[in-house]
Amino acid sequence: MTILVDKSTKVLVQGATGREGSSHTLAMLKYGTNVVAGVTPGKSGSNIGGVPIYNTVKQAVSEHPEINSSIIFVPAPYNADAVYEALDSGMKLIVDITEHVPVHDSLEFVNYARNKGVTIIGPNCPGVISPGDCKLGIMPGQIFSKGNVGIVSRSGTLTYEIAWVLTKAGLGQSTAVGVGGDPIVGRDTVEIIEMFEGDPETKALVVIGEIGGDAEERLALRIRQVGVKKPIVSFIAGRQAPPGKRMGHAGAIISMGSGSAGGKIKALEASGVPVAELPSQIPVLISKSMRQ
Fold it and tell me: Tens of pLDDT along 153-211?
């Protein structure tokens, strides 16, 4: 058992014939992900790596009713339309990779998805991977290894770095979830931790945070209020970030005195969560936490 994706995940790729969509479709196929179909308006009848392409999501789902998940590579100006098309076609999971999605678009489709009971990961995210089972995203699959450490991250590249550090230390991963770097995302750090809490395959947790927003502080508050069943350690990026300057992407900004790395670290440590100063320290902290 894993969270969000597994061997039963049947994938539709929206924006499949674009530069990013086509390369990552092939990479997901190579990893073993069950990519069933792709969608690009006007490209019906073509294929990528043997995956048939359709003009619309409705057409793809009609031909392949087993599809239950979508990954979106549609450019920002048209991204919301692609998300709504997936939502209205019965998808249970949508991974939205696209950057620069307008915040008001994200607000509207995330709310719509919640009302329909559909999980969105992203936008502006690397996706989800359950090593050995399914890669629904753009992460380099070869650095992940199967195991029992769950990862939730606001940063794509830090997800890869810390997964590689864990793999080299012999600590495989159950699932790694990149929630996305925008101010509005479909599922946040706290919600993913709650999913991991119910997953028997996950024995320990790594939270990768960064400046901006209050996700890490809310997680710390939840831990203080209701506790956490599994060992959890963290790494927070942006210790040297100057206030008021955006670092990396839209969600990473310290504003009005809140969202600093120091504040997040203080909140987590006050809740009993060890916070690494360097990614290389994560395996030591995880191993220590799992022995306690």
Answer: 998 899 999 999 999 999 999 999 999 989 999 999 999 999 999 999 999 999 999 88
Q: By the 8 A CB rule, do 228 and 248 touch? A: no
230 contacts: CB under 8 Å, gap ≥ 6: 150, 196, 197, 202, 203, 204, 205
Q: Which residues are catalytic?
A: 249
- Identify the CATH number of the domain in which residue 34 sits: 3.40.50.720
User: For residue 25, what are its two tokens?
Assistant: 């479709």
134 in a structural domain: no
DSSP string, 65-101: TT--EEEE---HHHHHHHHHHHHTTT-SEEEE--SS-
What letters, b where the CB count within 10 A reaches 16 and e where it falls short, cover 33-70?
bbbbbbbbeebeeeebeebbbbeebeebbeeeeebbbb
Give CA–CA dist 292/289, Å, rounded.
5
Split into its structural domains, the chain has a count of 2
- DSSP secondary structure string, 140-206? -GGG--EEEEEEEES-HHHHHHHHHHHHHTT--EEEEEE--SSSS-SS-HHHHHHHHHT-TT--EEE
Tens of pLDDT, residues 235-261: 998 765 566 555 555 555 554 445 788
Token reading at 40: 């690009």
